[in-house]
Every structure is written in structure tokens, then in C-alpha cells.
Design brief:
This protein is an alpha+beta fold and 210 residues long. A seven-stranded mixed beta sheet has the order 2-1-5-4-3-6-7. Bound molecules: benzoic acid. The site of benzoic acid has 8 residues, from helix 2.
Amino acid sequence: MAIRLGDIAPDFTAETTQGPISFHEWLGDSWGVLFSHPKDFTPVCTTELGYVAAIKKDFDQRGVKVIGLSVDPVSSHERWENDIAETQGTKVNFPMIGDPDRKVSNLYDMIHPNASDTLTVRSVFVIGPDKKVKLSITYPASTGRNFDEILRVIDSLQLTAKHKVATPANWKHGQDVIIGSSVTDEDAKKLFPQGWKTVKPYLRVLPQPK
Ligand code: BEZ
């Protein structure tokens, strides 16, 4: 069944390149990103894993654990990681789930039969500390993902989890934000005593809260 925003991310046990994990236990109180690859030893996936390894510090800074998955076994991931280090200049520094029996792929609906009966598509799930799914994106196999966009969304999710604001189109950390539409002007005065700019009664803009 499709996983929807706000659903509890299904729990599972799996073999990974960093040993067996129980997913919820592995997440602990952290945010998490679970992302799937169609197959090992493929070009787009090789560049994606190299890039995520290079920016892992940016996920760490945000308190986000990253974990990859493909339908190949862990022994294959381990051999492939040598190629990734050689060609992308970065050692894979996060666990990769081996899912040869498609247990996790099926649980997360990562196999889309109109694309392929057997391979996972490029799914991304962002999971909050409450284990709820906050974002899901599905890319086709032929399109490498923009992981800077995933970090940008995480910045927005973490900000809006703390403050009653929303973030506008193409927003980046540090830019102006919007007061959530459920917040009345009366409540906004208490929440944002520094004030805001009313562009329209429904479009109230203020600097990003600290
Ligand atoms: C790739 O990673 O390059 C790839 C994998 C499966 C299908 C198409 C491309």
C-alpha cells in the first residue's frame, strides 16, 4: 500500500553494509532519510551515492541519519562501494540496505511495475523524530536526484516543526518566511511580536525566526 505523508514509516529489520538494523531503533530520536536505488553497479546510482557521502556532514549537522537501499545483497553493495570511492572520490559513509527478497522495497512501495517489475525506483522518504513520513518523492531511474533539494526541504520541515510558519517558493535557510494561514493576526501578534509585513491579508511575511 502507498505510504502517505503523516503515516508512521513502516518498521523493519534488514542487513546493511554496517550490520543488521532494526529501522526504528536505528533511527532513535533522529530525523531520517531512506532512499532507494534501482541496482548496484549502475552509473546514475554511483554518482548519487558519491554525492550523498560527500554531503553527509550536512545531514549530520541537521541531526538526520541517512540510509540507502537497493535490491542487491550487501555483499554486492560492498564491492560496488570500492568503485564509488574510486570514481567519486568519497567513501560511502552511511549504511546501505541489501534487499534481495524485496521485503523493504515492497513495504515502502518502491517497486513500480510500470517502470520495472523487479527494480526499485528512486524513492526518497524523509522521516521525523516521531517516525512519521514528512516527505516522499519518486524519481524515475534515469534521473539522478537533487540531494541539495532534500536538505532544503529538511530545513523547511525542521523550521516549521518549531514555528507556526511556512516557507515560500524556492525558499532557502535564512530567507523570509510566511505566517501559517491557520494563525490569526491576534495570535500572530503574540507569536511574532517583532511584527511582519502584510502583502495581502493571507500573505504575511517576516524574517526567519531564529
Ligand atoms: C543508473 O543508475 O544509471 C540506472 C539504473 C537503472 C536504470 C537506469 C539507470
